Amino acid sequence: MKPLSECTVLITGSTDGLGKAAARWFAEKGASVRLHGRNEEKGRRTLEEIKNVTGNADLKYYNGDFSSLDSVSKAAEEILAGEDQIDILINNAGIGGGPKSGGRRSTSRDGFEEIWAVNYIAQVLFTRKLRPLLEEGSRIVNVASIGQAEIDFDDLNIEQRYDGFLAYSRSKLALIMFTFDLAEAVKDQGITVNAIHPATLMETNMVNEHFGRSQSSVEEGLEALVFLASSEETEGITGEFYDGRRRSKALGQAYDREARQKLKTWTEEVLSGYV
């Protein structure tokens, strides 16, 4: 892998928590960092903060609301127009569904259950749109979770007996399934794709909002994330699920090719108007 000072790193959900910490870490290493968020004012403020702290002026911010497929598509198009290459893509954006969220089901602008839409559907669209910018040696890291639940293909929009954490857990398993499929699809191009559970209940606004308590620090999660995204030790590794810095196993359904094909077929139909 080339030196980080020669790399362009795009991190979604980088105005807070783990994403912001990662953006700052890569900026400190001299990388060209591309931030993303859904609040433009907050995004610009974060960019200036990281620029001031690190002295790295090679930063850009892209706005996009992952609860809207149209917004995701437009953000990706803006990135395609503004960048020549992405060496590291970290899909970190996401929303929670812990016990403090109240168990209320909400929908995205496109009518999908919101957690499922943001944590899974939007991630697939965004990554697929940006494929032209990924070249040999590029790495994709999808921030998943150890909290996973089997997908019910008769209730993909999670309308029956709704539970927020179930929605979250299914969305993260779906993201891992996408990771495995994409890793196979781009392996011959020299692009690696992995998923990671950085740390359990990190001390972030999202965790506090949905769970009310934390078990680990953002720094712990950051260490694991940058290890997978940029270490020489993880170069060439693809199609894996990491728990922290260790290779681990996802829930069994992630390795079921028939289930992955079902999910892929459904997802392609949903995204057919956008890719």
TrEMBL record:
User: Which Gene3D superfamilies does the record match to this protein?
Assistant: NAD(P)-binding Rossmann-like Domain
- InterPro entries per the record? NAD(P)-bd_dom_sf, SDR_fam
One Pfam entry for this protein is: adh_short
Tree of life domain: Bacteria
Report whether Transport shows up as a keyword of the record: no
Claim: Acetylation is one of the keywords in the record: no
As for family, the record states: Belongs to the short-chain dehydrogenases/reductases (SDR) family.
- The protein in question is named NAD(P)-dependent dehydrogenase (Short-subunit alcohol dehydrogenase family)
Question: Organism classification, top ranks?
Answer: Bacteria, Bacillati, Bacillota, Bacilli, Bacillales
